[in-house]
Design a protein that fits this description.
This protein is about 80% helix and about 0% strand. Helix 2 runs antiparallel to helix 11. The chain starts with a helix and ends with a helix. The chain is globular and about 45 Å long. It is mostly helical.
Length: about 375
Amino acid sequence: MSENANDFQLHKTRFSAQSAEKLGWSIGGYSIAYALKGEIGIICFGLTMFFVASIFTIYFRKNDVKFGKDLLKQSILYRISSFSILIFAVMLENYHLLLLGSALSGIYVSMFWPSFYSLKRSSVSRWYVNEKFYACILLLVSGICISKFGPNFVIILASIAAIFAYFQASEISELNDCKNSKYQSANMWGMLALSEGIFASIINIWRAIILISGSIVVFEFTGIISFSLLLVMTKLLGAIFTHYSKSIIEERFRIISVTTISMSGIILISLPSTNLWLVGILIMGVATSAMYPLTIEAINSHLNFRNQNNRGFREDWRNRGRVTGATILFCLYYLEISYHSLPFFLLILILIYSKIMLRGGRAL
């Protein structure tokens, strides 16, 4: 199978896996967590997945496990198991079962993404625009279905989509990779992925808490629909910026643009106004969506320059960052420290991120 044909099959598999993710996790999982345990339920639900994903990614990399087709297929089985447990968690109103489902999704994350990027050969930014376009549709469908029919219906649909993804993964071919697979230890590129992971984790969980709880509404829609709408508006805008700016803006100015967008959002969420917070968190969502493919391309360029295989390097450090971000929110909640302190952390993170990106571009 040619590289283009293989990537097409890989994208088909990801589309089904994404359908499962957006239906059953991004909206369904967080809404169930809030219904069962409130604000801390959302934080622990995300933290469990990130922690397990990080532990398994570190284990796979330390033991030189090959990321490829077989691990990709196994990951989808863990996702199917996760959704099955989420269904029982809803039926029994059992939060501990929900956390078990979250842990299994963490194993999925630790296997799927390193395998996906090991198999992928075409442009990340172009695929990412399509990924976010379909995600917008799926998120809206998920939010509306949960509001009308409840979370179980959506999680069943997610399980069916995950089963489709498993069978589609069987058609993917393994491609030879002659790059050096030496284990990559921490360096400034690891810190880049770490800072992006912390940044995204804080924004995503904080946004989920505020919107799912109904503390702030979008277009007079409350709870889940507000959350869905805001995700839709931010994810696609960030992906479009990253891809289409690639050919018209010099790399240095793309990085400066994302930094400026992020800092604008940080300023707005720092101000004592609900409307400005909403605009600020929307801008920050665009920034996180734009940072994701930028980070992948920067790290891949660094590894390709040195003829080295990714081997889950970026995913490992990003997962560590996501754990750190969720842990910060957990500590703030239990210490009863206001979330208004978060802009300070976010400002430090975006400055670290932009400094590494700008310095890294000169190093290549």
